[in-house]
Amino acid sequence: MRFTLDMTLQDIMAANPKTVDAMQEMGLHCLGCPFSIKENLGNAAQMHGIDPQALLARVNEVEQGEMSAQAKANSQPEASVLQMDKKTYAIAPHIPAGVATPAILRKIADVAEKYQAAALKVTTAQRIAIVGLKPEDVPKAWADLGMDPGHAAGVCVRSVKVCPGNTFCKRGLQETLTFGVELDKRYHGMPLPSKFKIAVAGCPNKCTDSATVDLGLMGTSKGYHLYVGGNGGVKPRLADLLWENLQESERFPAVEAVIEYYKEKAKPQERLGRMLDRLGLDELRGRVGKTLETLSSVKQ
């Protein structure tokens, strides 16, 4: 069969395992990561600074067969991220809403010390990454942790960032922690057309950057403002204010309406903000409005 740039790495490897050798030779060293292999070939080439057409030509010229022993040895350990030295890996245990118990912190510290990690890094996604692990130690570290991996890569909901809200912060206007944990439970790791980030802030200070992620909620004295379409990266985009002062019962229906609309309308690898640049905001606002109207009529 002939491969195309919009095919996922996972599908290409399944169709012809020998392509793993070719892709590793071209610079794709993330073929053991369960998140990265869901990226398509074109996006993977772009992320690794490889000419997409050259990579496509290379995988299409590979004869059918099994991957080599060397390719297996070079495969990235599951749920890890290759580091700059191209020899060691980082793992990022998932910490829902960024709230960690002393027991979790001790466990992460013990594992880092046991496997002589180079560093512990608090990430912007409210995780604690264990950096600089040897490949053979990655599965052992995960076994010792007994924690779920954070979805740090792949076309899915990557992270749900949450501030302390009115549970702890003197500036908090709305509750965030219970809400954020439930958002995380429902959506973290959900496959979507492109990567997707969510943030919840308890006040207009937006300490979780809720106006620069794909879907953000911000507490006000009257409810929650809903922002959509923000992103960082090479072409930053400030989110659009989609709805003002959502009430507690309206939060999840509104979020679900946005995500379902995104699933329906987005092109592969298209962030929500770029989709809104293409389609405009009116239809999505109408979808959310209809959802809330239906919710209101059901209550009555």
TrEMBL record:
<dbReference type="Pfam" id="PF08984">
    <property type="entry name" value="DUF1858"/>
</dbReference>
<feature type="domain" description="Nitrite/Sulfite reductase ferredoxin-like">
    <location>
        <begin position="83"/>
        <end position="145"/>
    </location>
</feature>
<keyword id="KW-0411">Iron-sulfur</keyword>
<dbReference type="GO" id="GO:0046872">
    <property type="term" value="F:metal ion binding"/>
</dbReference>
<dbReference type="GO" id="GO:0051539">
    <property type="term" value="F:4 iron, 4 sulfur cluster binding"/>
</dbReference>
<keyword id="KW-0004">4Fe-4S</keyword>
<dbReference type="GO" id="GO:0020037">
    <property type="term" value="F:heme binding"/>
</dbReference>
<dbReference type="InterPro" id="IPR006066">
    <property type="entry name" value="NO2/SO3_Rdtase_FeS/sirohaem_BS"/>
</dbReference>
<dbReference type="InterPro" id="IPR015077">
    <property type="entry name" value="DUF1858"/>
</dbReference>
<dbReference type="Pfam" id="PF03460">
    <property type="entry name" value="NIR_SIR_ferr"/>
</dbReference>
<dbReference type="Pfam" id="PF01077">
    <property type="entry name" value="NIR_SIR"/>
</dbReference>
<keyword id="KW-0560">Oxidoreductase</keyword>
<dbReference type="GO" id="GO:0004783">
    <property type="term" value="F:sulfite reductase (NADPH) activity"/>
</dbReference>
<dbReference type="InterPro" id="IPR036136">
    <property type="entry name" value="Nit/Sulf_reduc_fer-like_dom_sf"/>
</dbReference>
<keyword id="KW-0408">Iron</keyword>
<feature type="domain" description="DUF1858">
    <location>
        <begin position="4"/>
        <end position="55"/>
    </location>
</feature>
<dbReference type="InterPro" id="IPR052034">
    <property type="entry name" value="NasD-like"/>
</dbReference>
<keyword id="KW-0349">Heme</keyword>
<dbReference type="InterPro" id="IPR006067">
    <property type="entry name" value="NO2/SO3_Rdtase_4Fe4S_dom"/>
</dbReference>
<feature type="domain" description="Nitrite/sulphite reductase 4Fe-4S">
    <location>
        <begin position="154"/>
        <end position="293"/>
    </location>
</feature>
<dbReference type="InterPro" id="IPR045854">
    <property type="entry name" value="NO2/SO3_Rdtase_4Fe4S_sf"/>
</dbReference>
<protein>
    <submittedName>
        <fullName>Sulfite reductase (NADPH)</fullName>
        <ecNumber>1.8.1.2</ecNumber>
    </submittedName>
</protein>
<dbReference type="InterPro" id="IPR023883">
    <property type="entry name" value="CHP03980_redox-disulphide"/>
</dbReference>
<dbReference type="InterPro" id="IPR005117">
    <property type="entry name" value="NiRdtase/SiRdtase_haem-b_fer"/>
</dbReference>
<dbReference type="InterPro" id="IPR038062">
    <property type="entry name" value="ScdA-like_N_sf"/>
</dbReference>
<keyword id="KW-0479">Metal-binding</keyword>
